[in-house]
Structures are given as structure tokens and as C-alpha cells.
């Protein structure tokens, strides 16, 4: 691969994009984060547009926040017309907009290219230049963009008349993905490779975690003052930093004001611009799920920590818990990008501190594919919907080259969930699968991207056996699930519930209302529903907010319920009912009351949606509770659910058998699998569920085919 400085790279790419020997020219440009989006893209676009005025330009980036920030930064730095939306086909200003470079996120590009109802295909012009970011850590949206572009290129090669298209993939210098090359070569795409040979200057140090507060204080208050207030970036969420006791030492000096700010996947571009405009010494917490890298004019230092919290695929249980795992090469590159971009702003050259050592990182770093593995079910649904199948490399989605055991097991589950047809090799998405995918993509109704929540919402919308009252109950359960944590227990209450002395749990159940209180013995979801119902009926959250309180105390002080969460749950219910065409409740208590048949339908809907997230409790208390699909023992000591499972077993003194619960979240705690938010299901329900299948029993239906360790 030939290396270029920028003065050589730009002319080389201009010449490459001008070639007429092929209808489609494909290039990969490798570089550090030194200006691919803010320098190279607008410069090359200007040259191509000047040479071929009829050319349309498109730049595809990670997400909409990145699209908005790139559009803003490029417009300021290069005086280039940039927009962050695809122009409408019937826009009155279409001729003017054709002069502009359109910037769009992966997910919006994918939707525009595949949605039959969307009439504004962004690549419908025979003379185009397309720039596409290539992620350091693969995601479903990014891999689907690669697949869609490959399919588009294949189609263009059959159209020789008048087609002049250039596609430029922008990749990290040190983390190019070989599975992308496999897709290119399988479809006879031979990119030209260019390396922008420039590395920003910055210094990297190793520090002890105990010294973090000292380095922050020194960077903010003891460094030479410039024309902008100093910034320090911590690659951890604010919640994680508080738990790690990183923040408390910095609050001891009241004479030195520090502004605390944070960014995560929910932060909008406007909020970022506003945050960056404040001229105060700032500590910025960057959550692992925040994809962009911001150029901060006076970034003094950035601090990397050894672990990140992410949803993974756990091979020991064949489940998808949240886990603290070591950072990966891709994480480290993204963190360093903050320093590199900030170094290019012309201000202070930042330092990069590692609260870990290189030997530890080399021995323990996680795989960059961990995030994608944790999102395998959505990957299969997206690929099936877009390409009508899942066979790699015919379906040009790089991550479909992954573990056959993992992909096969997730395919099996989606078939049982009626999301993908059994017909091999097409594996077409079903109408239920399309509904599930809609709710997987919907950030408002399913912020965490949970397949189980998406399936629950799809069943609420489509299940004819659910009554209106049943749908209302499930909508409120979905709202509670999507807006956790709703409450905090006192230490005394947590001990009481864990020990099952029933004092705290009985007090909490007594402070429930409505159908939640009637079924509170079943555990978590019913208790939370009952708590929220009572607080809502009494308007307690609004009263607390008016009084300046952030929580409502219930159950004799054993529990503090978040005012913010209660209001968010109410907004969620209102939005989802409007989406489903359901009129708001006039009398919530009466309109969510359930007859026995309606209650059974609610339980069955929950059980089908959380079919692969169940724990089995044996009536023999000498035997540990186990994850249902892997039979691995589970740890329930981390955070108690609002239920009394041992009491349930004691009340059923049988020699064999047991009962099942669904769970809605899991973590890895002390190396053990730890389910959370457990809700019991009626004992006769599993037998009724398998009447729809050929399975002998529920266990034979759900047991994993992934090779988990023997018990």
C-alpha cells in the first residue's frame, strides 16, 4: 500500500475518481483521526464537483449525532455547503441541494435504500461520489451499510452507459477489518488502497487509578491558562466514575469550581454544541456507547480505564448479560482519537493517560467483535429483511462470517419466536419478525435495543388473544421495563428481601395498587406495576416534583421511587398507546382490571417474549436455581427481585419438580451469571405453551444448541 502526505493524497484521489476505465471506482483510505471527515471529504468533493458539476455527493457516518456534528464542523472549517438530511425528491430547492454534500447516518441510509415506502433513494443518480466511514468496532447498522453498498456496486457494474461513480471507504489505519475484504473479494470488488501518512503528536503515560484525581486537578487548575477553559475527558460513565470513587476527591475544594458534563448514546448534537460552548473548567464523562470523538480546543488530558460495560454473548450460558469486560483495540483507538483530533485544533497538545499497563492490555484486551456478538439476533433480522437470506458471502454482510455455532443458535431461537421462517437456506423474515425489527430499531420505545422488549411490543400489537385491558397492562409493563431503574431499596430492605423475612416485601406489596397489587405475589413486574399505579393514581410524582423532591418514599421508607422515572413511564404509556391507536385510560384501575382468561393471556405473552430468559427453581431447596436453557447455576445475590422464591418452594412441599420465572436483565457478577428482575409464571403455563410446538416439554424446546460447558 502506497503512503502519501496530504499534498500527495488529495491529487491522487482526484485522479482516481476521474478515471473512466470502469463505471465504478472503489477506494479505501487509511488514516488516523486527523481530518478524514473535516478536510479530506470536503476537499475531494469540491474537486469532483468542479470537474463534473452534475455529480451528487453523499457521506455516510456512524449515527445522526455524528452526521449533524460533521455537517456543522465542515461548514465552519471549509465553507462547504453540507446538509445532514437526504433531500426530498419533490423539494422545491432540489437544484440548489444538488450542489451540496449530503451527510447521513448508517441507519437512515439503510432505511432509505431498503424501505419500499421511502421514495427518496439517496443513490439514484448515475454520477455520484459516496464516502462511507468504516467502524473500528463493528455494529449491525455499519455492517448493513457495507452490505447495501456492495449490492449497489454490483448492480451498477451491469449498467455501463453513463455511469460514473466513486465509492471511498474511510478506515482506521491500524484496525482494518479483514472480513470486509472477504466480502469485497467474494463480489469481485478490488479497491485501490491509499494511506494518509500523518500521525498527530501527543504523549501517552501510564498512571495508577489512585492518582486520577490528582491528574485531573492538576490539568484543570495548575496548567498554563490559554484562551479557552481546560477540559479533562474520562472514558467512563458518570455513574461508573461515582462508583469507582473518582469524583468525590474533586468535590472537596469549594473554591475551585468544576463543571461536570457527560455524553452517551442519547445525547443530541444540539446538546453537545451547547456543552462545548461553556467556558468553564470541565470534566467530561464519555460513556462507552457514545460513538463520536469531539475535538476540544483546550483538552488537557484524557484518561482511559481498563474496563467497559457492554452486553455480550456469554458462551458459558448461551445468554446475553451485561458485563464489565476489558477494553479492546477499537476502544483504545476511539479514545486516542479524542486526543488526536483535539491536538489538531491548534490549542494545547493533550496527554493520554492509561490507568492500566501495556502488559495487562496485551494479555486481557477483549475482542472488537464482542459488541456485534451481543447483537446477533438483530443482525440476522436485518440481513434477512434486506437481502432475503443469511448465506454468507452471497449476502454481503461481513459479520455473517462469524461463529457458526452462535449464528445457528440465534437463528433457531428466531424461528421458535416466529421471526424467521424455517425454510433453509432462504431464512426469510416473517411478518412477526418485521414487527420485532421495527421495535428493535425504535429508540423511543426500546432504548436498550432489547430483542425481548421488541418481541413483547410486537405481540402487544398483533396478538388477537389479548384483550384491550390485557394490552394496557402489558404496555405499562413495557414502560416500566424500558425506564429502569424505577426505585432504590434501603440496605435494610434489600437484606430483608434477600433473607425473605417478608417484612420489607410485605410493606412494598401493601403500597401497591390495582392489578399489580392483586398479582404482586408473582414478583417483579407486577410489584413495579402496582407501585407505579398507586403513585400515578395519587399524583404523588407530580406533588414531589413541585416540592423539589426527586423521589417518593413508600413502604414505610423501605423504598424510594424515582420521580423522573415515574414521569417517563407515563410519557411512554401515552406515546405507545397513541402509536397503537388505543385511547388513553379514563379510569386506569378499572380499565386495567383483568378477568382470569385475560390474566392468562398476559402471562402467556410475557412467557413467549422471554422464552429464552428463564430461571428454574427446584422445590428441593438444596438444589440451586438454574438458567433454563443452559442448566448453569445462577447467582441471585446481587440485587434482590421483588419476590420470595424460597417461600414459594416451601409452600409447595413436593419431592420433585419446581417452578419457572422469566428475567428481564442479567449481569456477570463475580464471574457468575446473575439474572435480575424475576417474575414467576403460573405452573400450568409451560404445558399450555408447548401445544403450539412439537416439543415434548418446555425445556426440550428452549435448551441451547450452543456448546456450553457441562454442568
Output the strand order for the largest sheet.
1-8-2-7-6-3-5-4
* Largest sheet data: 8 strands, parallel
CATH fold topology of the largest domain: Rossmann fold
CATH architecture of the largest domain: 3-Layer(aba) Sandwich
**Proportion of residues in β-strands:** 15-25%
Task: State the share of residues found in helices, binned by percent.
Answer: 40-55%
Instruction: Give the number of DSSP strands.
Output: 23
Q: How many domain modules? A: 5
**Class based on secondary structure composition and strand pairing:** alpha/beta
Helical element count? Answer: 29
Name the average pLDDT: 89
Poorly predicted regions are 87-93
C-alpha-based Rg, rounded: 27 Å
Task: State the separation between the terminal residues, measured CA to CA.
Answer: 50 Å
**Basic shape:** globular
- In CATH terms, the superfamily of the largest domain is P-loop containing nucleotide triphosphate hydrolases
CATH class bucket of the largest domain: Alpha Beta
Which properties best describe this structure?
single chain, 711 residues, alpha/beta, Rossmann fold, Arc Repressor Mutant, subunit A, eight-stranded parallel beta sheet, 23 strands, globular
